[in-house]
Amino acid sequence: MSARRLLAWAILIAAVLFFALPLIGMFEFSLRARRGTWSLDAYANVLKDPQFLGTLAYSAVLSVVTIVLGILIVVPTAFWVRLKFRRFRPVVEFITVLPLVIPPIVIVFGYLRLYNTSSWLPLTGSTTGTDLLLSLGYVTLSLPYMYRAIDNGLGAFDLKALTEAAQSLGAGWGRILYRVILPNVLVAVLSGAFITFAIVIGEYVFAALMNRPAFGPYMVWTGSNKAYEPAALAVVAFGLTWGAMGLLQLAATLSTTGLSKTRLSKTRRTR
Amino acid sequence: MADITETSLLPENRKQPRRAALDWLGLVPFMAFAVLFLLYPTAHIVIGAFRATDGGLTLDYMAGLFTPNIIKAFTLSLEVSLLTAGLGLALGLALALAVVRGGLPGFIRSALLTFSGVASQFAGVPLAFAFIATLGRLGFVTVLLKAIGIDLYGAGFNLITLSGLVLVYLYFQIPLMVLIITPAIDGLRTDWAEAAESLGATTAYYWRRVALPVLWPSLAGSFALLFANAFGAVATAMALTGSSLSLMPILLFAQIRGDVLNSQQLGYAIACLMIAVTGIANLLYIVLRARADRWTK
Predict the structure, then answer these.
(1) Residue A53: is its pLDDT beyond 60?
(2) Chain B contact for A122, CB < 8 A?
(3) CATH of the domain at B206
(4) ipTM of the complex
(5) What percent of chain A has pLDDT over 70?
(6) How many Å apart are CA B246 and CA B132, to the nearest integer?
(7) Which among B33, B40, B130 has the least Cβ separation from residue A114?
């Protein structure tokens, strides 16, 4: 028994080393820009580069657009499927996990062939069109997570009863979705939003192949042109994505522990 | 997923047919989105791999895959995916067993699962940078080891090789393994081990005759999923190696960007092959998981 415990500790310590060392190494490396001493020079250089803020802002805006589009597509669909098409649910679920099965590079390849300037829907012909296509591509990439989060959220309360109650009080579908359903799945929507943000902010393949100035391609460019700045960028990217994922875990914990309470107050608050 | 009984109790769609037809309208936005930005683009690529310039059916492009550089990229991808899936499986299983069954303090379990949830998602460019900063020629660990007399690069190690790439991939493969195998380990009931022991079985015998037969569908399924996960990854490898390691997805990336193979259809064929590989691996995962679920009920 104690030999087993010893082995367990040894495995754990090895794992902690393997997972912690790259993070420590990255951080230490990012402080090395000035010779002989630790400094924040690499971060200062990064901040001075207008491209850094430009690409980061671009990706942040894109992630917000992606989140909004994702919510608009997923919430009504998941609601409608649970309310009216329960038998259709496996089909919708199957479609939503497909982005995990089909390699993303194949999906974007399809976009570039289908929506180029000579096609019936020439999205890549203009920057706005390309941005929209990129955003819709990110909706696709985050679909498995977004759909599962929101569908679980919808399963946590009596959707039929609430809908019928709202209907009998004279609410239309839009009002039901916005005032009754959305407040009840807010935590789920939030967790979907965080993971979407984490996906979009560092994504490389879609943005690079569509030639858009996003943060991912900027990181790769820095990686092949600078020495210490890439490590600083990696620290920033880790901070942003792990922060978002941490908030996601928090949202998940809140949604399981505070569910009964919030459900009551939320339904009561639908004035 | 588990509410089939609930469904059958609900009187649904017993309205006038016209109303039911209107109900379908609610699914139109989603279906339109899925068709335009997921199904149709994928189908376009797959069909493109089999359509001759005159519109007929052809296998020429798929046959064109049998050229040396594509075969090389494919075997390299297979190698990376098999290695990282195998190692990820073994190490992830060891870690999960240590934490779930090793008598470690309870908080470690939830810490590990939270960490795994984050790390398994987090591949890509920053991960590659973190490893370059740690095990590159001037990396943190490289320099540290050199100071105590161990010269990694002198001994032939190089991060920008197949083994380096495998090491980097393990950073997300092990956590993914931990995430999917932990529920299966939880499903191994302690009374089975106790029953085996009271009947005189050694630990090894218990593992061979009880635990492994129960776990194997989960293990095989995890292997398939880890394999697919590694096979489709691009960004990590590109940021780590530039294009010095010609993996299948990296070759496709170069093809999309600059038509390096001088044949658009060959690009379709590569993409089609990739879908086939990840599709089969995922299918195996689904089938095996359904088998594994028999024990957890």
Answers:
(1) yes
(2) no
(3) 1.10.3720.10
(4) 0.85
(5) 93
(6) 19
(7) B40
